[in-house]
Design brief:
The protein folds into two domains: 201 residues, 3-Layer(bba) Sandwich (FAD/NAD(P)-binding domain), CATH 3.50.50; 152 residues, FAD/NAD(P)-binding domain. The protein contains eight helices and 18 strands. It starts with a strand and ends in a 5-residue tail after the last helix.
Length: 363
């Protein structure tokens, strides 16, 4: 069994930002990532993906995003940036290692991994907020000839069979995939409109007001104040979609995509809407989000919705256990690249203080 002071599980933006601050503070640690290379989880996303935050805000601590400040990075741009970030700071990332279980081990934790058991004083779970694709139960009663796949499996429009397409879920991923498909298909997009940012990507208005938007998602919509807690509760209990990039709905309607109500069930093997309408489709793309899956963590630290019970990523009931990259970990931006650095610094400093307080030299 290997013994390491701190293990960070997950090597994407949240894990790398945490590693940066841990290294800066001299905390012995390793980052374990199940993928074969840093940034692999980004490369698996759909080809046309573009972030709806400008490059200047997609920055991890210590290294600005290298692209044009007002560009909108694609998935491979971000993957390349994460790889360069890991190399630049020589972060102790070990790829191709999957953590199967985490449990208590005396005053620390025992991790079962594909590389064998590991004993750690601290564990930072940085696997992010998005795990298992969420698909409605009634999907199983659809005609088996209808092609179904989740946004997690969508890459490009060429994989969609011929015929009409229903995109279920009207968040950012649903909107972008619907726009991707419209060139060669009749497309419906189904779901509640959760609203949009007040300005469109690339507009003059965005350049003027985006600093205010950044301040809002990092400082104002913060769980340290009543406004932030109210917004958090609105989006998490129960889970619901966050607003899309500004101008997206206009693009959808101008493209000829029909926006319909919620898809609530099936009739004669076809999807049925909440108004009783039945759509005759050959494909359904579920853009219905993800459910958190922490079943591999054998510790009583989760609420009734499956979310970790924490204070800014610190699990107070189990000293030495931390989470990173959660939606509303401290603010609305916590699950975004623009927000992970601040949370990573807080968590890393908490670990460093805990290390110093328990050092035998101080006893």
């Amino acid at each position: 069994m290997r013994n390491i002071d701190t293990i960070v599980v997950g090597g994407s933006q949240a894990g790398l930002a945490t590693s940066y601050h841990l290294k800066r503070l001299g905390v012995d640690h390793e980052v374990l990532d199940e993928n074969d290379e840093v940034g692999a989880s980004w490369r698996r996303r759909w080809e046309s993906l573009r972030l709806f935050t400008p490059g200047k805000y997609n920055t991890l601590p210590g290294m600005p995003y290298p692209g044009e400040p007002w560009s909108y990075p694609g998935k491979d741009d971000i993957a390349n940036y994460l790889q360069a970030y890991s190399r630049e700071f020589k972060l102790p990332v070990r790829t191709g290692i999957k953590v199967h279980a985490v449990g208590a081990n005396g005053g620390g934790y025992l991790l079962e991994s594909s590389d064998g058991p590991i004993s750690a004083t601290n564990v930072v779970v940085a696997t992010g907020a998005f795990h298992n694709p969420r698909i409605p139960v009634f999907a199983g009663s659809l005609d088996p000839n209808i092609a179904q796949f989740h946004s997690a499996d969508y890459r490009e429009a060429s994989q969609i069979p011929k015929g009409p397409v229903l995109v279920v879920g009207a968040g950012q991923s649903g909107a972008e995939i619907a726009l991707d498909a419209i060139d060669n298909h009749q497309v419906w997009i189904s779901g509640k409109d959760n609203g949009e940012e007040p300005f469109s990507r690339g507009s003059f208005t965005e350049r003027v007001f985006s600093p205010i938007g950044k301040f809002a998602v990092t400082k104002v919509v913060n769980v340290a104040n009543p406004i932030g807690r109210k917004v958090r509760n609105h989006f998490l209990y129960p889970p619901r979609g966050i607003p899309r990039a500004g101008g997206t709905k206009k693009k959808i309607l101008e493209a000829g995509i029909e926006w319909v109500g919620k898809t609530t069930g099936t009739k004669d093997g076809q999807p049925q809407l909440d108004d009783g309408r039945v759509l005759d489709v050959t494909s359904i793309i579920w853009c219905t989000g993800f459910a958190a899956d922490y079943s591999w963590i054998d510790l009583p630290v989760f609420d009734d919705y499956g979310y970790p019970i924490h204070n800014r990523g610190v699990v107070e009931s189990h000293p030495g256990l931390y989470f990173m990259g959660l939606l509303f970990q401290s603010a609305l931006a916590s699950a975004l690249i623009v927000g992970v650095g601040r949370d990573a610094k807080y968590v890393a400093e908490h670990i460093a203080v805990r290390r110093d307080a328990t050092s035998p030299m101080l006893q």
